[in-house]
Amino acid sequence: MAKSGVLEGDPTMVAKAMELKKELQKLVKAIVDEEDVNLEAIDRAQKMMCALKELKLKKSVSLKLHNHHYGHEMVSGTVPEEFKCPLSKELMRDPVIIASGQTFDRPFIQKWLKSGNRTCPQTQQVLSHTILTPNHLIREMIAQWCKNHGIKLPDSIQYSNEEGVTKADRDYFLSLLKKMSSTLSDQKEAAKEMRLLTKRMPSFRALFGESLDAIPKLLSPISQSKCEREFHPDLQEDIITTLLNLSIHDNNKKLVAETPMVIPLLVNALKSGTIETRSNAAAALFTLSALDSNKALIGKSGALKPLIDLLDEGHPLAMKDVASAIFNLCIIHDNKSRAVRDGAVRVILKKITSRMHVDELLSIVAMLSTSQKAIEEMVELDAVPCLLSIIRESCCARNKENCIAILYTICFSDRSKLKEMREEEIRYRTISQLAQNGTSRAKRKASGILERMNRAVNVTHTA
């Protein structure tokens, strides 16, 4: 681009601009070098500047640059900002409105959405759906502007298929959805194919966001059954696993969770079906709960009780997914109370005592320890010796930190437990060693317990 700011384009216009600039430079040099004021040179310079300005304005309106994406010429220069696509920064050919209310050029926003994104590029708002609504008003305004400036806007636009979804893919997707309301054999075939495609192709997951009824159609075989016996276990497993696949990307989480039948069906799946179905239902709830709004929805649905029951069963395939789901849900206060009420403390302490998934489960107990009721249950279930033994045995600094944090809360809630901790300290110096060698948080908690022990001993001696 020329330094003068005159846009490159028609070679004749560029050459004329360069000639004007050279002549202007000579005139300016003559004006500056001469001792007397050369009025004639000043007048000529002014005329040159006006000619250069006129050329610039003319070029701004008429200049067309080749648009490599569409294969058409694209206007540039003085295009009003409201007519430009926020993604391409070019004049929109087919303006469409997305769920956030923002307008984009269709092929660019399609590419954005089919890459797995489920947020508005402008506002970062999570989109409730990916339906594209034509913005007829903006299109008419663009057409009028183009007409006024002598620019031809093509009536039809050929879109490239860079995102990897062809018309055949989309047609196949729709045919699979149609099969979900057909015979059992068709449903099983379609559900298995959906499961495989959503696992392999991020762009295929995005297709579910293009229609508000895509997920309900996927779920129809199990949502319309009056009892669990009416659908085949393998069919349920494939559908629940497809939901998990759809939930993997953050941008899909809001749409999936807020589809009314999804969470109730996941909760039902936690209670029935193959162990893989139950495990994948837990994993789906875990991935969906990345959003705080989804945590609240899932907690209110009653999902914690069947998650805790599945944890209690202790099936190796499900343990990690269930523990992850419970941990994520308990980040918000209301769900902590629900988990404690639904028996989480008893179940988790039983697993920890058996040294099952200690890392994950200790993190949950540490989180629940902010609840007074949880602490009371820990005291009743004699959690102190178990926690102290983990500190002695574990090589994991994080586990030691969680244990001492829980013990710190217990000793401040129930003074009677200080005696057990003091006996541990006399015998193994467990807490002192952690106060010296633990993480910064573990050191603070261990020191706090030691200080409380000493205070209790001094009070006893004084008495």
UniProtKB/TrEMBL annotation:
EC number(s) given by UniProt: 2.3.2.27
Cross-referenced Pfam families: Arm (PF00514), U-box (PF04564)
Lineage top rank: taxon: Eukaryota
Presence of keyword Repeat: yes
Transmembrane segments: none
Residue ranges occupied by any U-box domain in the UniProt entry: 78-152
Record has Repeat as a keyword: yes
Catalytic activity: S-ubiquitinyl-[E2 ubiquitin-conjugating enzyme]-L-cysteine + [acceptor protein]-L-lysine = [E2 ubiquitin-conjugating enzyme]-L-cysteine + N(6)-ubiquitinyl-[acceptor protein]-L-lysine
Alphabetical keyword list: Repeat, Transferase, Ubl conjugation pathway
Coiled-coil residue windows: none
Metabolic or biological pathway, per its Swiss-Prot or TrEMBL entry: Protein modification; protein ubiquitination
InterPro entries: ARM-like, ARM-type_fold, Armadillo, RING-Ubox_PUB, Ubox_domain, Znf_RING/FYVE/PHD
UniProt-recorded name of the protein: RING-type E3 ubiquitin transferase
